[in-house]
Amino acid sequence: MFQEILTDRLRLRCLLPDDAEAMFAYRSHPQVTRYQSWEPQSLHEVASFIKDMSTAEFNTTGWYQIGITLQAGGSLIGDCGIHILETDPRIAEIGITIAPSSQSNGYATEALKAVLSLLFGTLCKHRVFASVDPSNLPSSTLMERIGLRKEGHFVQSLWFKDRWVDDVVFAMLASEWNCTVEHKLGMDSAFTCRP
User: Rounded to whole angstroms, how far apart are CA atoms 106 and 144?
Assistant: First the structure.
């Protein structure tokens, strides 16, 4: 089970049945669906998704979705997906969705920095990456802001919503995250995970 994480302003936690309405509202918003493969068609579909997540195990292969809430008030403002690769569980993919009404407040940056700390610092992943539509400039900027480097721009490599689209991959290695932590905290040696 996912253990909740507190940041300065946010609580990252398991999705709850009461989150369905808020999640459906932002997940079905045109500004969000433009870049997302999942476009829920009903509140029932979102409720079923949350129910499925409640029985899924965190840090096993496949996607696991966590809720992002404000500590003040507890309202759901988004969700973050963590995908542990079937081909190699030492590699994880991340994705994030923030409700349009809560965007441009630094919440995505704050949440993803906490997720990177979990993946590299606690779970000892080797590599974390994200796939971004190059026309989604705020997401590309976000990935760079949290320290991921642009690894490649793949031209018309994905069939998405009945057309070929480009895909930009951003990534970070555990050794790069350690250097970032060292630099920010002024440490002489990096945190390391041993198998």
Answer: 14
Q: Are strands 91-98 and 149-159 parallel, antiparallel or unpaired?
A: unpaired
Q: Is the dihedral angle over the CA atoms 159, 163, 166, 172 positive or is it negative? A: negative
Q: What is the pLDDT along the chain (195 residues), one digit of tens a residue?
A: 899 999 999 999 999 999 999 999 999 999 998 888 888 999 999 999 999 999 999 999 999 999 999 999 899 999 999 999 999 999 999 999 999 999 999 999 999 999 999 999 999 999 999 999 999 999 999 999 999 999 999 999 988 888 898 899 999 999 999 766 544 544 333 333 433
Give the three-state DSSP class for 5.
Answer: strand
CA separation, residue 59 to residues 28, 85, 124, 192 (Å): 27, 10, 11, 19
β-strands 91-98, 127-132 pairing: parallel
List domains and CATH numbers for the chain. 5-185 (3.40.630.30)
